[in-house]
Design goal:
The chain is 37% helix and 13% strand. The chain has 251 residues and is α/β, with parallel strands linked by helices. The protein has one domain: Thiamin diphosphate (ThDP)-binding fold, Pyr/PP domains (Rossmann fold), CATH 3.40.50.970. The strands form two sheets. Strands 1-2-3-7-6 form a five-stranded parallel β-sheet, with helices on both faces. A two-stranded antiparallel sheet has the order 4-5.
Length: 251
C-alpha cells in the first residue's frame, strides 16, 4: 500500500500489527455485517499515521474492500492518509491529530457507563504521542473517574518522527508513570500474541480503574532494513524495497 502510494508510514504500521490483529480477531466484540451494532466494542487508532495497519485489518475483517487497498492516499479513496470517518463510516472517529485519541476513548467509555451498556473501548497510542500534555490530562481523568471499561495500548517502539524517543524527549519509565497516575499497568512484548491475549483478558477483569498495556515493539518489525530504523517512520519504500520486504514477510 505504502509503496504504491509513494507516501506513508511503514515503521509504525508494522510495529502495531500483532496488537490490532489480537484485538480485531481474538478479543473485541464487533460485527462487520452490522458495523453500527450498538453494543460493539470501540477502537481508536490515536496514532493515526499508522493507518495502513488499520486498513489491512479492517479489509481482512470484512469492513472495507480489499481490492481498494492499493488506492491508499489517493483522492476519493476510502483509505486516506489518516483514518477518516467520512470515508469509512465503521470508524469511531477520524484520528491523526496526536494527543487526542485517549480523550475520545474516555468519552466513548463514559458513554457506555452512563447508558448502562456493555461495550469496552480500546485506544492505541504512539510513544512519541505520549509526550503530549493532553495524554496525561486524560490519564488523570480516567483514573480519577475509575473508567475501568477503557484500555490504552502504548505502541512503545522507541522511535518517533525525528529520531529515537530517548534523544528527543525521554518518556521512560513509561509503565511507572502510568502506574503513578493510577492506571492498572501491564508491560509486555507487543509482538507476542499469547501475551497480548492474556493482557486483554486481565484488563477486562480489572475493576475500578482503567488499564494501560505498555507494549514493547520494534519499529518496522519483520523487515530487516526497516527494523529500528528512524528513516522508515514516514518514508515510503522504493519498488525494490517493497519486493525485498514482501519476500522477508512471506518467508
Amino acid at each position: 500500500m505504502i509503496g504504491a502510494a509513494k507516501s506513508g508510514h511503514p515503521g509504525g504500521s508494522l510495529s502495531a500489527v500483532e496488537i490490532l490483529v489480537t484485538l480485531f480477531f481474538d478479543f473485541m466484540r464487533h460485527d462487520p455485517a452490522n458495523p453500527a451494532w450498538p453494543d460493539r466494542d470501540r477502537f481508536i487508532l490515536s496514532k493515526g499515521h499508522a493507518a495502513p495497519v488499520l486498513y489491512a485489518v479492517l479489509a481482512e475483517a470484512g469492513y472495507t474492500p480489499k481490492p481498494a487497498l492499493m488506492s491508499l492516499r489517493k483522492l476519493g479513496s476510502p483509505y486516506q492518509g489518516h483514518p477518516d470517518k467520512r470515508f469509512i463510516p465503521a470508524l469511531e472517529a477520524s484520528t491523526g491529530s496526536l494527543g487526542v485519541g485517549l480523550s475520545v476513548g474516555l468519552g466513548l467509555a463514559l458513554a457506555a457507563r452512563l447508558n448502562h451498556r456493555p461495550w469496552r473501548t480500546y485506544v492505541v497510542l504512539g510513544d512519541g504521542e505520549i509526550q503530549e500534555g493532553q495524554i496525561w490530562e486524560a490519564a488523570m481523568f480516567g483514573a480519577f473517574h475509575k473508567v475501568d471499561n477503557l484500555v490504552a495500548i502504548v505502541d512503545y517502539n522507541k522511535i518517533q518522527l525525528d529520531g529515537f524517543v530517548s534523544d528527543i524527549m525521554e518518556i521512560a519509565p513509561v509503565a511507572a508513570k502510568w502506574s503513578a497516575f493510577g492506571w492498572h499497568t501491564i508491560e509486555l512484548d507487543g509482538h507476542d500474541l499469547s501475551a497480548l491475549r492474556a493482557a486483554f483478558a486481565e484488563a477486562e477483569a480489572t475493576k475500578g480503574r482503567p488499564t494501560v498495556i505498555v507494549a514493547h515493539t520494534i519499529k518496522g518489525k519483520g523487515v530487516s532494513f526497516m527494523e529500528n530504523n528512524p528513516k522508515f517512520h514516514g518514508t515510503a519504500p522504493t519498488p525494490a524495497e517493497v519486493q525485498a520486504a514482501l519476500q522477508e514477510l512471506q518467508a
